[in-house]
Specification:
Layout lengths: L40 H15 L8 H8 L4 E3 L7 H5 L10 H19 L10 H26 L3 H4 L24 H18 L11 H15 L2 H16 L27 E5 L12 H5 L7 E3 L1 H7 L11 E4 L2 E4 L15 E5 H14 L4 H15 L12 H12 L5 H7 L4 E2 L18 H4 E2 L12 H6 L13
Antiparallel strand pairs: 1-3, 2-6, 4-5, 7-8
The chain binds calcium ion (CA).
């Protein structure tokens, strides 16, 4: 085995967490040699598998990267001040205490994608391998774009706040050395960069189901999401409709009302991919461990996060809404039960949906609601979600507002990492208040900073501070506003 040239932005990476695993303890298969290792398409596939392994980590999509957007919002909260989710929930981060993993894991993914992309065009392969080549290159482009997208929304203000004029993150598209000290690009430059990756990926990727991996519909879904985040509503609508139509002509379909409560435990395959456009496939032998969403949400596990009382009231206002079955009550608290164990597995090995077709319907509805003269379209896509939740309900004949769509997004996507981002990109407030509900009478907010209790996109903590180790290692990085003195 070749000596790995372990290259990472900023070089010094630390983890400011109480969790056991260290960043540097990644198993060998999560690292890619920087040169001469990739000599054929099998090597590319092997390298991509190592990138998916990083993404499945509990510090990435199987855990932190997912729950951050929930516990910083108003629908989900930490279940105690010593819980793993508490620091995000409290939103008391300073420039010295900000987490490092959102940055370090994303840049490790980017680095590994860049190694593949720097070599893939030089590979020799047979003519009948052209589709495979295209698909593998498309995967590397999409995964690189997704990591830049996540970095931009964690560290950069919403595009819609200032048309992307504020600072995002460094765009890294080359294999760089340890002494590389990039500056931050603007949010607008970041959007241009990852949208270009998504577009090229969508043109290369296979439309076929690929278990635990991205395909053409994932790329188009990310394009839809990126356009929506930018306020390019006509593009978001067109791309969302193209994604829905394309995916549904390739066996994807919204889950039914009947299957909804338990289908999260299913182990999907090509014959019935359901509505999962991309998921982390965790197994007992490739387990993210107990820091994963399954065990964190489990009432008899780490029981880390619970529904807030205000959201519980919202979610249960229609008792026949199937989504009101997606929690379990124990000791007067409501625990999310979307992360269900697949057959024969432990709860911590629950798969993690990263993008569902339901989200694409809601993107179409939201974009249409923001456009002139597209109310019928907004009704069409919103109604699919509303009627699936309760066949007795309908929004036919209604004028669909942004707030109506956002309400449906909260009910559909809670616990899946969206809420805080959805509120701030639309310049809506997060209000963390308590209501009295007897079924969950043990639930109330813990003491929050006043500015973390009610905030909008003007609050400096809607973005994370650039990690301290990166700031120390790279004088070209500028810290986010107000973190300089806090
Ligand atoms: Ca699993």
């Amino acid at each position: 085995m070749k000596i790995l040239k372990y290259i990472l932005l900023g070089a010094a990476i630390t983890i400011t967490s109480s969790c056991g695993e260290s960043w540097l303890d990644l198993e060998p298969s999560t690292q890619i040699p920087t040169d001469t290792a990739i000599q054929n398409l099998s090597h590319v596939e092997y390298s991509l598998n190592s990138i998916y392994n990083v993404m499945r980590n509990a510090y990435y999509y199987s855990g932190r990267m997912t729950y951050y957007g929930d516990v910083t919002g108003d629908d989900v909260q930490a279940n105690g001040l010593t819980k793993r989710t508490a620091n995000y929930y409290l939103m008391g981060m300073t420039r010295d205490t900000g987490p490092s993993t959102h940055w370090s894991y994303a840049y490790q993914i980017i680095r590994n994608c860049n190694i593949i992309l720097s070599q893939i065009d030089n590979l020799e392969y047979d003519n009948d391998e052209q589709d495979e080549f295209n698909d593998l290159k498309g995967q590397a482009l999409l995964l690189r774009g997704m990591a830049h997208f996540e970095l931009t929304r964690f560290f950069g203000y919403p595009y819609t706040k200032d048309n992307g004029a504020s600072l995002g993150v460094p765009i890294v598209h080359e294999v760089v050395g340890v002494d590389y000290k990039p500056s931050r690009n603007t949010v607008a430059e970041c959007y241009d960069a990852f949208i270009a990756d998504f577009e090229e990926a969508a043109s290369l990727l296979s439309p076929a189901f690929n278990k635990g991996k991205v395909n053409k519909w994932t790329a188009m879904g990310y394009l839809s999401r990126a356009y929506l985040y930018m306020g390019r509503d006509a593009d978001a609508l067109n791309m969302a409709i193209a994604t829905i139509n394309g995916a549904e002509s390739n066996k994807y379909a919204l889950w039914s009302n009947e299957e909804y409560p338990t289908i999260w435990a299913s182990d999907i395959d090509a014959s019935n991919p359901g509505e999962i456009l991309f998921e982390m496939v965790n197994t007992t032998t490739e387990s993210p461990g107990k820091e994963s969403m399954g065990y964190l949400c489990y009432s008899s596990g780490y029981s880390d996060m619970i529904l807030t009382s205000s959201f519980y009231q919202l979610l249960t206002e229609d008792a026949n809404d199937v989504r009101a079955k997606m929690f379990t009550i124990k000791s007067k608290k409501a625990y999310i039960n979307k992360y269900q164990a697949q057959a024969g597995e432990n709860i911590q090995d629950a798969n993690i949906p990263v993008m569902r077709l339901s989200e694409i319907y809601l993107i179409a509805a939201e974009a249409a609601a923001k456009l002139q003269n597209r109310n019928e379209t907004a009704v069409q896509y919103l109604n699919a979600i509303v009627q699936r939740a309760n066949p007795e309900n309908s929004v036919e004949g209604e004028t669909i507002t942004l707030d109506r769509v956002l309400l449906e997004r909260r009910k559909e996507l809670f616990g899946e990492g969206h809420r805080m981002f959805d509120a701030i990109r639309n310049n809506r407030r997060i209000e963390r208040t308590d209501v009295s509900v007897s079924a969950i009478s043990s639930t109330s907010h813990y003491e929050l900073l006043p500015e973390s209790k009610s905030f909008d996109w003007t609050y400096f903590r809607v973005v994370l501070p650039i990690p301290k180790a990166e700031m120390n290692a790279n004088p070209n990085l500028v810290q986010n506003p107000e973190y300089g003195t806090n």
